[in-house]
Write a structure and sequence with these properties.
Elements lengths: L1 E2 L9 E7 L3 H10 L7 E4 L9 H4 L18 E2 L12 E2 L21 H11 L6 H11 E3 L23 E5 L5 H13 L17 E4 L1 E2 L1 E2 L2 E2 L2 H5 L2 H4 L4 E4 L2 E11 L5 E12 L2 E15 L2 H11 L2 E2 L1 H6 L6 E2 L5 E3 L3 E9 L6 H4 L2 H14 L9 E7 L23 E7 L8 E8 L7 E4 L2 E4 L5 E4 L10 E3 L6 H17 L9 E4 L8 H11 L1 E2 L31 E3 L14 H18 L2
Parallel strand pairs: 1-12, 2-3, 2-15, 3-12, 6-7, 15-29, 16-17
Antiparallel strand pairs: 4-5, 7-9, 8-20, 10-11, 13-14, 14-15, 18-25, 19-22, 19-27, 19-28, 20-21, 21-22, 23-24, 25-26
Helix pairs in contact: 1-14, 4-14
Bound molecules: flavin-adenine dinucleotide.
Cofactor: FAD
Protein name: Aryl-alcohol oxidase
GO molecular function: flavin adenine dinucleotide binding; oxidoreductase activity, acting on CH-OH group of donors
Length: 592
């Protein structure tokens, strides 16, 4: 059951207390309560997702990011050196479903090599691609798009599952001329931009059709899927909203010297009517508060770098210097071209009559342009093997079949008039964090680029979020290269009579001028990971062991995107879901 008021809960003691009802947290809640003997409480700081149209209707997603709002934690990054000292808004969801309720819905798993590297660095083959594929399948419910078009040749059914819980589909609305041009590019420039039938097969390189977490024309989130009424009505599943966890309390040592916590402290209520409560987990506390929330709670509980915590007046209970370190996100920059076609998403966003018609159509039948975001394809590309950057930098990708660059290819711009196409360039494996090499596997050591740290010992102060964006030569080289690739893509002959001009011509800029354009315009992909990274059981760094239990603690685990040792070469929700699915099995296994 989902509760808005702590007074309605049946009690404050459960087998498992899960902090955070986001991508991974709701998966764990669902899977643990498959066992009727387990009682579970989810504490979610955010608001209900019920009836939030900007979250439900795919085309409206952009509205969730316009200024401070109730569905957001409303964070801002620290000044980013690589962005000419700009601070940027840093979106994190404050709503049931977590970031799955306000993200771009892009469904990308990453490369098989990404996961094989997780297995290699943790020494646990259970984190390899082959071992995790059944968990991707448990998550994914492949769904027909709402326009019921013929999807043959647009995906590979053998790498998808129709038996999971979370809807994934191809686009249910089309921009035929634009889509034709993208596909024709793969025929005209097949060496550089080959067609890939399905980039979710583990082999990502090339251009493929977008897949999204959308079902029946509506966004599918971890709340609408894993907490759907048939699951939420389980008598052993309790979800409390407006419950912001401040810290873990009543720390004690077991006979073996591990730290345990007797309770989870949280503030519950709405605005002026809030109080502090403590919930107890008799079996395990599971942190699923995401890559910002989880390290923040750990540090306020005394788990983190001893020196840093002591300086803030927080008593140290477990010295784990990797907490909050290694924060990794993907630098992003967009470019637009005006085009000689009225068949772009601008025809809806700029025209109130068409916009209202499209909304009406969505309301009537869940069809039409509102069932999608206007991105149709994604390109996954590698830097040239002989790129000068590799003279000094070890390739940070997980392997030779893993892309360095993503280009999202979409219709529509942001201007008040005109027709545009938009390409979004992403550095998939940023190096703005240090690694040391051990054999042919890059290991995390600690500290360099990004971090989540505390500004005070008040758990209700926002943390300091430093993404370390574009700090290294590799990252700036790669984003420059990504822009060049985008320009080459639209130079395929098929675009000749279609493209009028770039909105800002980046093709003839000096390297210095291009770098300034990038540093003044880039932002983060909002795919933060690694702030509570998993490492091998005997490693002297890292936060959790491969079984997701916190090192040096007992009865405390972390199950969310923060445990990923490296970022996937992709958007991160599929990885977060799969961490939730395998994490739930690991918990079940130890409490069998
Ligand atoms: C703007 C944006 C766009 C994105 N677009 C995409 C995309 O298109 N495709 C994709 O694959 N990925 C995307 N992502 C990333 C993806 O959504 C995340 O990687 C994924 O949701 C992370 O899952 P998680 O379980 O780690 O955390 P989250 O899903 O963030 O869930 C964490 C939950 O914990 C709650 N919480 C935090 N602190 C506390 C606390 N102290 N007490 C109680 N509750 C707390 C939060 O409110 C939240 O509900 C996007 C992310 C953002 C922010």
């Amino acid at each position: 059951k989902i509760y808005e008021d702590v007074a309605d809960l049946p009690g404050l003691e459960y087998d498992f207390v899960i902090v955070g009802g986001g991508a991974a947290g709701n998966v764990v809640a669902n899977r643990l309560t498959e066992n009727p003997k387990f009682s579970v409480l989810v504490l979610e700081a955010g608001v209900s997702n019920e009836g939030v149209m900007d979250s439900i209707v795919p085309f409206l997603v952009g509205n969730l990011f316009t200024g401070p709002n109730a569905y957001e934690w409303n964070y801002t990054t620290t000044p980013q050196i690589g962005l000419n000292n700009r601070s940027t808004p840093y979106p994190r969801a404050h709503i049931l479903g977590g970031c799955t309720a306000h993200n771009g819905m892009v469904y990308t798993r990453g490369s098989a090599e990404d996961y094989d590297r997780y297995a290699a660095v943790t020494g646990d083959p259970g984190w390899s691609w082959d071992s995790l594929l059944p968990y991707f399948f448990k998550n994914e419910k492949w769904t027909q798009p709402t326009d019921h078009h013929d999807t043959r040749g647009q995906f590979n059914p053998s790498v998808h599952s129709t038996n999971g819980i979370n809807s994934v589909s191809l686009s249910g609305y089309h921009w035929p001329i634009f889509e034709h041009h993208v596909l024709q590019t793969t025929r005209e420039l097949p060496e550089e931009f080959p067609f890939n039938l399905d980039f979710n097969s583990g082999q990502m390189l090339g251009i493929g059709w977008l897949q999204s977490t959308i079902g029946g024309g509506k966004r599918s989130t971890s709340a609408t899927s894993y907490l759907a009424p048939k699951f939420a009505q389980r008598r052993n599943l309790h979800v409390l909203l407006h419950a912001q966890v401040s810290r873990l309390v009543h720390a004690q040592k077991t006979k073996q010297g591990a730290v345990t916590f007797g309770g989870v402290e949280f503030l519950q209520g709405i605005s002026y009517c809030e109080s502090l409560f403590t919930a107890k987990a008799t079996k395990e506390i599971i942190l699923s508060a995401g890559s910002v929330g989880t390290p923040t709670i750990l540090m306020h509980s005394g788990i983190g770098d001893r020196t840093a915590l002591t300086a803030l007046g927080i008593p140290s209970v477990l010295d784990l210097p990797s907490v909050g370190q290694n924060a990794t996100d993907q630098p992003f920059i967009g470019a637009r071209w005006s085009v000689n076609s009225t068949q772009t998403a601008d025809s809806i966003s700029q025209n109130a009559t068409r916009f209202n018609e499209a909304y009406k159509e969505w309301n009537r039948t869940h069809t039409g342009p509102f069932v999608e975001i206007p991105v149709t394809h994604l390109a996954w590309l590698r830097l040239d093997a002989d790129s000068p950057i590799f003279e000094n930098v070890t390739d940070p990708a997980a392997g030779p079949n893993t892309p360095h660059i993503e280009i999202s290819i979409g219709t529509g711009g942001v201007a008040a008039t005109g027709n545009f196409i938009s390409l979004g360039m992403v550095v998939l494996n940023p190096t703005s964090r240090e690694r040391n090499n051990c054999g042919n596997v890059s290991f995390i050591k600690r500290i360099a680029g990004g971090s989540v740290t505390l500004q005070s010992n008040n758990p209700f102060d926002p943390p300091l979020i430093d993404l370390g964006l574009l700090k290294t030569d590799f990252d700036i080289f790669t984003i420059r290269e990504a822009i060049k690739r985008a320009y080459r893509l639209v130079q395929a002959p098929v675009w000749r009579d279609y493209i009028i001009a770039p909105t800002t011509d980046l093709s003839n800029l000096s390297t210095e001028a291009l770098d300034q354009f990038i540093r003044n315009g880039a932002s983060a992909g909002a795919h933060l990971v690694s702030t509570a990274a998993m490492s091998a059981r005997d490693a002297s760094y890292g936060v959790v062991n491969p079984d997701l239990l916190v090192k040096g603690a007992s009865g405390l685990s972390i199950i969310d995107a923060s445990i990923l040792p490296f970022i996937t070469s992709a958007h991160t929700q599929a990885a977060a879901y799969v961490v939730g699915e395998r994490g739930a099995d690991l918990v079940k296994e130890r409490w069998r």
